[in-house]
Design goal:
The complex is a heterotrimer of chains A (299), B (347) and C (398). Helix content of chain A is 73%, strand content 3%. Chain A has 299 residues and is mainly α. Chain A has a domain of 206 residues. A two-stranded antiparallel ribbon of chain A has the order 1-4. A two-stranded antiparallel ribbon of chain A has the order 2-3. The longest helix of chain A is centred in the N-terminal third of the chain and has 35 residues. In chain A, 59% of the residues are buried. Chain B is an all-alpha fold and 347 residues long. Chain B has a domain of 224 residues. In chain B, a hairpin with a 2-residue loop joins β2 and β3. Chain C has 398 residues and is α/β, with parallel strands linked by helices. Chain C has 13 helices and twelve strands. In chain C, the strands form two sheets. A seven-stranded mixed beta sheet of chain C has the order 7-6-8-9-10-11-12, sandwiched between helices. Chain C starts with a helix and ends in a 10-residue tail after the last strand. The relative contact order of chain C is 0.13. The chains are: A mainly alpha (299), B mainly alpha (347), C alpha/beta (398). Chains in contact: A-B, A-C, B-C. Chains B and C meet through α3, α14, α15 and α16 of B and α1, α2, β2, α3 and α4 of C.
Chain lengths: 299, 347, 398
């Protein structure tokens, strides 16, 4: 009985840990959607970019951490601005399928450029966190996972406060609500878009660093995890920061529980498909997710 | 050369071919296509076969997204269902290919119906995400239902037999594929002259208004999904016979994105656009491959760099088209066509 | 604005097409063409990059040495993103337009997809896939795996378990952890059968996805069965995840990894978790003291000193060398059949020490059944023993 309890506890805690990584990736998605109603179908590639740039600054250029880290963040902000300016601005007002496709497009470009510059072999990622697990009761947790959970919570707190109380945050919410009115109030909509993409790429970079640390190395398969963002944001609500964090953790937990219990029954692989089954169920029952704003369709 | 239209009957308005020239052009095209397998190399026949399959798939997707406005990223899943069902029907039930492919397409159509159900409740982005989930769930089932699909070890497809002749070479499959392409294109073109087709377009343009004038959303959305998946089923079945062995690797999300790119670059809401898009997206990697191979013949060390530029070029193609010509190749074509139609009396 | 950009796009397309036409017009007598299939953008691009580089370098080196019997080698390279339809299209081009004599293949799906074609066209296919299903010339006469096959490797693992097990009070418990794809599953049947033959207890099999980030739930389930040894059959990128999660969960299992899952990078990717992990090596590692290593390292220094190289690079060289030897032996009979016969004439062919000596026969397409086991101690790969399984004809094709 105790063994069983430990088993469940282990799955739960791993789920929370893994889920907080998903939460970080999804946060980027939510921020973009919240500010500009743009759906980013390439979240994985932004994470990949962050992982590769941080690897390059630390291991390839041998810069000390206190230079490498800010440099990585600056680069990702630059990427965000380039995407917003070069690719999304011309497409303001186009149909949603065009916007979705253009995000696939630049995801492809990012991937290709990274491949051309650094090649596709796996590079070991510097150990930024110790690998000695510490124990939460009977359950071992690796420091990386703990850090990702802490960072996710910190970001949740920061962004919640930001959107609620700061002027810029309110401006972002206003823009997401109604661009024309926001413009008429003097809010620079272009600036808001740029800002949202900049923040989103920074968050994705953090996610990338964490993910690479978990894996131990950077390679192109990091991007494939990006698709897990969708079950998370659907569960949590496409425009809710709280939803991204809670949704991420929930999906992580559900994934691990189904892996632990259903894999032996179905012979493996359930863990990968479970989040998508959950996604479909949520869409049928409550499409706007746990915390999302219910959209009202006007004729 | 036509100068404006002078039509006295409604039937004339609805004609697919206004004048005799396009009809003659089409006949020429058919003759050329009929003769090609005797002269072309297997490699180019393979490319043409893939273009043919892509055309059918792209038309199907365009019916759903371009004409009915329902976003679907699950097209690869439908192709997979069509392909595997055809293979299973032939390998296990021994059906001949001219029965197996339509039967598989019907199965895929009902599958499409199933996955179209969310479209009744969801719109736009949410529908796109639901179809994304459908894709992963389908891929999971294909990989793990090993009894039926051979799982990860692949499924052999028996060669199609017609009057005792095995159609197992690219040249022979070419005829089968293009025998499907032309009816598929005409059916689709015709569909949008009918009430059903116009209902689809109405749903795309303004769903609520369509409902108000009496278009049943339920019936027509599901019908759109079914017809689109039927096309995907046919394309999948032809794919199965073309490649003769099926792996789940051939039906990844990238394939679905490829098809989306086809209809966007080609032009949404246009049958001709689907054809152009299919040709473009199939030829682009081939041209890149030729460039990579020949450049690496001269500079061997550059191969890695050029080969990995494929993703960049693909992405840039999509972005460029979306920024500069969102209505796609079809619009470019119609501009060129209009210019020359009245040349030199453009005004 | 619209017209200008249209002009640019058109000219770009025309330039690309122009390059495509710019193929070396010489289909002359003096060139032997080899097809090169590689994945640089798909799930195995990690291995693909070095494999491709190794092949290109080896061909360049051989040409610098004067080629084969006075003829230059040319590599016709195609990147196929691990999508079988693209591999099939590339193959058709290899055969029809480039008239290659041999194809340097790559992964399990493309090798499987091309089996009927190469048999019909009689083109030898030297594959990066070492699947046991490719070793029986009666079923796959033109397939030549480029290294010790996966089924032999899993048997090596089971032999190792039997030999090192000292507790006589019970049978050792073994488990298999493998990737959910054709390559991962290839040796499992053979492994099950052999475990039964040896009287070992196969207590668990865990499936991990192709792209792995977290193996906790799988390992937790495996922990319940307390296996003493486990065999990991997936690629180098993902083995560290299993190892690290295993260390974290406190599993007391000894791990043995297959050749594609274990190389110089494993210690740095897995950190402490790599300690005491054993790997089956099919090629020498970068910097090993073997005759061929100096040639490789000199070439590397001259052409791309800033790149890093790992086991896949050695594999690329190795396969080209084997192909080159076969081409040399076939002399004037430069046809697919001739090259096949030449390959089947290799007996203990010395590959500059880059791998075990290669022997292909007309009845047995297993290049070798010998290997070296390496153990990771203190972050370094230490050779620990030489192992071998017999060339049992009953195991052909399994």
């Amino acid at each position: 009985m105790i063994d069983h309890l430990v088993f469940v506890l282990q799955l739960l805690i791993t789920g929370i840990a893994v889920g907080s990584v998903y939460a970080l990736m999804s946060l980027g998605f939510v921020l973009i959607f919240k500010a500009s109603s743009v759906v980013n179908f390439g979240p994985g590639e932004l994470v990949l970019f962050g992982a590769y740039v941080s690897w390059a600054t630390i291991l390839q250029m041998h810069l000390p951490l206190y230079i490498a880290f800010p440099l990585t963040l600056v680069t990702s902000i630059a990427l965000g601005l380039i995407i917003e300016r070069g690719v999304l601005r011309p497409l303001i007002g186009e149909s949603i399928i065009s916007v979705i496709m253009v995000t696939f497009g630049f995801a492809s470009v990012i991937r290709g450029v990274l491949n051309m510059v650094w090649g596709s072999d796996t590079r070991p990622f510097p150990a930024l966190f110790s690998s000695e697990p510490f124990h939460l009761g009977p359950v071992p947790v690796s420091p990386v996972h703990l850090w990702s959970f802490v960072i996710a919570l910190l970001l949740l707190g920061t962004f919640s406060l930001f959107f609620k109380y700061s002027l810029t945050g309110m401006a972002m919410r206003a823009t997401a609500d109604n661009q024309q009115v926001a413009l008429s109030l003097g809010i620079s909509v272009k600036g808001i878009f740029a800002l949202s993409w900049g923040i989103a790429t920074v968050v994705s970079t953090l996610g990338g660093i964490i993910l690479a640390s978990v894996r131990g190395g950077v390679d192109f398969s990091l991007a494939d995890l990006g698709l897990k963002v969708f079950p998370v944001v659907i569960l949590g609500g496409l425009d809710s920061v709280m939803g991204a964090i809670v949704g991420g953790v929930l999906i992580g937990v559900l994934e691990n529980l189904s892996g632990g219990y259903l894999d032996p029954v179905f012979g493996g692989g359930v863990k990968e498909v479970a989040p998508f089954v959950i996604l479909v169920l949520i869409l049928m029952v409550r499409p706007y997710g746990l915390f999302g704003k219910v959209g009202i369709e006007r004729v | 050369m036509t100068c404006g239209g002078f039509r006295v009957r409604y039937r004339d308005d609805e004609r697919i071919f206004d004048t005799h020239l396009p009809m003659a052009g089409l006949m020429c095209l058919l003759c050329i296509l009929g003769a090609i397998p005797f002269y072309a190399s297997t490699y180019w026949l393979d490319v043409l076969n893939r273009i043919g399959i892509a055309i059918i798939g792209a038309i199907g997707l365009n019916i759903l997204i371009g004409f009915t406005g329902q976003i679907s990223i699950g097209h690869a899943a439908f192709l997979a269902v069509g392909a595997y069902t055809t293979a299973v029907l032939e390998a296990r039930l021994g059906l001949p290919f001219y029965l197996a492919i339509p039967a598989a397409a019907l199965v895929t159509a009902s599958f499409g119906l199933l996955f179209g159900l969310p479209s009744l409740r969801l719109k736009g982005l949410y529908l796109a995400i639901a179809t994304l989930a459908a894709h992963f769930i389908t891929t999971y089932v294909i990989i793990h239902w090993e009894g039926m699909t051979g799982g990860v070890l692949g499924l052999q497809v028996p060669a199609p037999m017609l009057f005792g002749l095995a159609l197992d070479s690219d040249a022979r499959i070419f005829y089968v594929i293009f025998a499907c392409v032309f009816p598929a294109a005409f059916f689709a073109k015709n569909l949008f002259r009918t009430k059903v087709g116009r209902a689809f377009i109405a749903i795309r343009d303004r769903e609520v208004a369509a409902q108000v004038i009496g278009v049943s959303l339920f019936t027509h959305k599901l019908l759109a999904f079914s017809i689109s998946s039927f096309y995907a089923g046919i394309a999948g079945g032809l794919m199965a016979h073309h490649s003769r062995i099926l792996f789940s690797d051939a039906f990844t999300l990238l394939v679905a994105i490829d098809y989306l790119a086809m209809i966007i670059i080609g032009g949404m809401g246009s049958i001709l656009g689907s054809i152009f898009g299919a040709i473009f997206m199939t030829l682009l990697p081939e041209i890149l491959k030729l460039a990579a191979t020949s450049l690496s013949g001269v500079y061997p060390q550059s191969f890695g760099l050029i080969a990995s530029s494929r993703d960049v070029i693909f992405g840039l193609a999509i972005i460029t088209f979306l920024i500069f010509e969102p209505a796609g190749l079809a619009r470019i074509w119609s501009r060129v066509h209009t210019y020359w139609r009245l040349w030199p009396y453009a005004y | 604005m619209y017209r200008k950009s249209l002009v640019y796009v058109c000219s770009l397309v025309l330039t690309l097409v122009g390059f495509g036409m710019l193929r070396p017009a010489v289909q002359a007598q003096g060139i032997i063409k080899l097809g090169n299939l590689v994945d640089l953008t798909g799930p195995t691009s990690d291995q693909g990059k070095d494999i491709s580089q190794g092949r290109i370098d080896a061909v360049q080196y051989l040409n610098q040495q004067g080629g084969i019997n006075g003829k230059k080698l040319e590599l016709v390279s195609v990147e196929y993103g691990f999508q079988p339809p693209r591999a099939v299209a590339a193959y058709k081009k290899f055969v029809e337009e480039d008239k290659v004599l041999l194809v340097l293949g790559y992964g399990t799906p493309d090798t499987e997809a091309l089996r009927p074609y190469i048999t019909k066209d009689k083109i030898p296919y030297l594959s990066g896939s070492y699947s046991g299903h490719l070793t029986d010339p009666r079923q796959t006469p033109y397939n030549f795996p480029g290294g010790i096959d996966y089924s032999s490797q899993i048997r090596i693992f089971l032999n190792y378990v039997k030999e090192t097990w000292t507790d006589s009070s019970r049978k050792p418990r073994v488990a298999f952890i493998y990737a959910d794809n054709a390559y991962g599953r290839a040796p499992i049947e053979a492994g099950r059968a052999y475990a039964k033959d040896l009287g070992l207890e196969l207590v668990d099999e865990q499936i991990i996805p192709t792209v792995l980030t977290d193996a906790t739930s799988q390992l937790l389930n495996m922990k319940k069965k307390t296996p003493d040894f486990a065999y990991i059959n997936t690629n180098t990128q993902w083995v560290p995840v299993v190892l690290k999660d295993s260390l974290k969960l406190g599993l007391k299992t000894t791990y043995v990894v297959n050749n594609y899952g274990f190389d110089e990078r494993t210690p740095s990717l897995a950190g402490d978790a790599a300690e005491d992990v054993i790997g089956i090596a099919d090629v020498a590692f970068w910097g090993d003291d073997v005759p061929g290593m100096k040639t490789l390292m000199d070439f590397h220094k001259e052409y791309h000193p800033n790149d890093t190289h790992n086991a896949p690079y050695m594999r690329g060289w190795l396969w080209v060398m084997v192909a080159a030897e076969a081409l040399k032996r076939s002399g004037d009979d430069l046809t697919g059949e001739g090259v096949k016969k030449a390959l089947e004439s290799l007996r203990d062919f010395d590959t500059w020490g880059l791998s075990q000596p290669f022997t292909y026969t007309a009845e047995d397409h297993r290049p070798t059944t010998k290997s070296k086991l390496y153990i990771i101690k203190g972050g370094k790969l230490v050779p620990t023993r030489d192992v071998e399984v017999p060339r049992n004809p009953a195991w052909l094709g399994k």
